[in-house]
Amino acid sequence: MAFSFFTAFHTALQDPSSYFSFQKEMNLKAVEQVFFNSLAGTTVFDAVVLPEDLGSGATYDGQKSVRVRPLGIHDFIIPEPCSYKDPVKIKKILAMHPVAYPDSNSPLSAGNDTNPEHQAFGGGVVVECFFRDGPQSAGRLRGLTYRLKASRSTASKLDLKCLGISLSGETGGSRVPTESQRAFERGNYKPYEPATEGEASPGVLSTKTEEAAKYVKESTKDKIKTHKTSDGKNHSPSKKTYIGNADTYKNKPLENGLLPADLIKQSTSATGAMALFLVDVIDDFDRLARAFEVEFGQKLSLTVPSYRTFNEQIKMKNSKIRQGKSGEAAPPGTSNHGWGLAFDFSTHYKGKSGFQSETYNWMLYNAPRFGFHSPRVLRDGDPSIADEAWHIQWINKNKIWKD
Known about the structure:
There is one protein chain. By secondary structure, this protein is an alpha+beta fold. It folds into 2 domains: 22-181, no CATH class; 204-402, Muramoyl-pentapeptide Carboxypeptidase, domain 2 (2-Layer Sandwich), CATH 3.30.1380. Helices cover 22% and strands 15% of the residues. The protein is built from 7 helices and 16 strands. The two termini are 37 Å apart.
């Protein structure tokens, strides 16, 4: 049975037309896989509705499938359609975007919403997306679902003019989106640029300073001071398999906040607290820090040690508990800092801090060029999760650590 299938399949591909169609489909599937893998761990995110074709005047009533372009870090995976002038290329780019299906349970679905503003919407409107179980790619690829937002907004900084859509501030009753809801502004964004092989990294020290060396070397299992935080809860370092570039530890299970000293490097490209990172990302952090310094004329300043040992995670959690801000620290033993992949920086600049700071907005748009990002879950306004403008972490953790 299988032999007959593959024989027929091989014969069909001998036809040039069939082979071209097959190759085109495989290319689209590859883009889809990269796109959806980048959304791993994401539960809810905003996306811009795209029309199906150039100059399409069609509207969507909340009951039809639509093509969407997620906002945030995912924006760099597929080029903006209007960055091309060739209509054929624009159509191909549109076809690469994922299809989202309506959430029939949403109270804002057409027919269930009394607000006429929500009864129809066109390209450029921001919708809320999430995943349901689907038939492909472990139940996710065809399970992308959208629902209308209670407050309509448009991605006013996304150029959709080539699609016959003009976005400018207040449009059709829509409110201007907040900075974290906007798509990246054209011309301000470039894709991730990995360091050139063999490129020197002047900011990286092959040996750590005495203070940093002691800090890292004392983060071993036998030197854990306590597993209990001040709220009475017990914690243990989580385990993951290292699949990065250091051959000595490849495919070996390691523990959060207890990483081997030779897997951690220190950077002098930043100031403030110790800049300690996993060897796999240190070069890219250095490049990010140097770009920041060029932009603002001052070094990137870290507020706490970037690599957070298990003992330090216990200490940090206790501090946040005392301040009534327990949500601002991950359960000890689970932090991205404990995997050497994150840092907290001072956002204060010219009298502004947090999400209003010019340094934060620069980081939002530019950190992904170097493999880092400001996680959307920490800037989505969800009261159950602390918003943290200061926290920046590595994008592709699953390419270095495996559960």
